[in-house]
Write a structure and sequence with these properties.
Length: 290
């Protein structure tokens, strides 16, 4: 019969652990001498230093192939996206006219978004460009020379400009304004030298009567060609992209309205079902009244 192992006392176990941590006879710490610890630490220092250097070299080589001013690949940006302001979760603008706490955050968001568009700011930063034509600015042998940005005055948005301090962009009267912006795409020339504009309508024709008339600002939802092309944020420092405002003046209350806005420009596709934000945006509006 196998002999039972001798049971060790707690004192013996503790003594063995103390000897493992520091053995005064062999001067070993955790089973290794000082020389052994030094060699293994030196190995890992060299090993991880080599890996860090290899990673840094790889990143440096990759960055040499990247232009900080223009994206290297733009083949999927034939049609820019569109978005609305105020920014909402799920593109859903819902509020109650008589309950200001349901729409005050929309008003604050619009005020904040439009601050750079103040006429005084635009006059100080940007130039009065010639309307009706592209604002092309070649480098003239100076690579990435800073470009002039054209003025887009907030006052051109009419009643949706929110110029008065107490202006609520129509939310307090049940005639809300929604801003539409076209995403920036470098070297994008929309319209083939023809005028471009934004059009909005109910997604379903049978809902058009319930949605009521729409007013677009600037008139006809036009976007002047002088705001194109865009040369990138490093070169086009003060660029403020054009905005179109749509105001719902008589939308039926207490029901959901589904609206779609499209960029109307010659040669621009906005019917690609694989990308529902290419040149268009759809959102929901509900105006509740007690």
């Amino acid at each position: 019969m196998a002999r039972d192992k001798e049971k060790r006392s707690c004192g013996q176990v503790w003594a063995e652990w103390q000897e493992f941590i520091w053995d005064p006879r062999t001067r070993q710490f955790l089973g290794r001498t000082g020389t052994s610890w030094g060699l293994i630490l030196l190995f890992y220092l060299v090993f991880y230093g080599f890996l860090a250097g290899l990673f840094a070299l790889t990143m440096w080589v990759m960055l040499q192939s990247v232009d900080p001013h223009v994206p290297k690949y733009q083949d999927r940006l034939a049609t820019p996206g569109m978005m609305i302001r105020p920014r909402t979760e799920g593109l859903d603008v819902t509020f109650n006219v008589t309950q200001s706490q349901t729409w005050r955050h929309y008003v604050r968001a619009l005020h904040q978004f439009l601050e750079p568009y103040n006429d005084s700011v635009q006059a100080a930063r940007n130039a009065a460009c010639v309307p009706g034509r592209y604002n092309e600015q070649p480098d003239d042998s100076v690579l990435n020379y800073p470009k002039r940005a054209c003025r887009f005055n907030r006052s051109s948005l009419g009643p949706c400009a929110g110029l008065a301090p107490a202006d609520d962009y129509g939310y307090g009267t049940g005639q809300p304004c929604v801003l539409l912006k076209v995403n920036r795409v470098i070297n994008f020339f929309p319209g083939r030298n023809k005028s471009i504009n934004v059009v909005c309508a109910a997604k379903r024709e049978e809902d058009a009567a319930l949605l009521g008339p729409l007013q677009l600002f600037p008139p006809n939802g036009s976007i002047d060609l002088m705001y194109f092309p865009y040369y990138g944020k490093r070169v086009h420092v003060n660029y403020t992209q054009p905005v179109v405002a749509v105001q719902f003046t008589n939308a039926t209350a207490n029901i959901e309205h589904f609206i779609e806005c499209r960029l109307n420009a010659d040669g621009l596709r906005t019917d690609d079902e694989r990308d529902k934000f290419a040149g268009r945006v759809a959102f929901r509006l509900r105006i509740n009244r007690d």
